[in-house]
Amino acid sequence: MTAPAAAVESPMPAPTPAAAPEVSPKERFIAAAEQLAVAVIDRAAGALVSKVDDVAGMLDGVGAGGGVGMNALISGGLAALGGKNPVWAAIKGGVAAMSPTTKVMVGILLILTAVLAPVVLLVVALLLLVLAIVAAVRGQ
To answer: Which residues span the membrane (predicted)?
Structure first.
C-alpha cells in the first residue's frame, strides 16, 4: 500500500482576496454627478430629436400641399430678403403655383374687370347725378 502523498506547498503564497480600493465621498459625488449629467443630456437630446421630427413632418406636409398661398408667401419672403419687391414676387409665386385652369379663370376675371369697370363707374356717376337733381328739385 502506498502512503498518501503529502501536500506540496508552492513557493507562492495563496492569493488573498483583493481589498476594494477605498473611494472617497468626493469621488462618489463626482461619479454620481457625471451619471446624472449623462442622463439629463440623454433625455434632453431625445426630446430635441422628437421636436425636430415633429417640425420636419410639419414642413414636409406644408411643402407637399402648401398650395398657392404658401408658395406666394415663400416667394415674397425670399424677395424681401433679397431686397426686391415682395408684393410682385408674391404675385408671381402665387400664379406659378396655380393650375392652368385656374390661370385661365384669373385671366378671364381680370379682362372682365377691365372691360366692366368703366361701365360700373358710368352707372355710379349717373346715379349720383340723378340723386343731385332729385335733391335740387326737392329743395325748391
So the answer is: 104-137
In percent, how much of the chain has pLDDT > 90? 41
Collect all residues with Cβ–Cβ distance below 8 Å to 77 and sequence separation of at least 6.
Answer: 86
Residue 79 near residue 89, CB atoms below 8 Å? yes
93 close to 76: Cβ distance less than 8 angstroms:
yes
Grid cell of 50 as nine digits: 422628437
| Nearest Cα to Cα of residue 91 among 79, 82, 100, 99 | 79
| CA distances, 23 to each of 17, 19, 26, 27, 33 (Å) | 18, 12, 8, 6, 15
Contact 92, 71 (CB under 8 A): no
63, pLDDT greater than 60: no
Banded model confidence at residue 37, pLDDT cuts 50, 70, 90? very high
Q: Quote the strand ranges of 78-133, DSSP E.
A: none
Which pLDDT score, from 0 to 100, does residue 7 have?
53
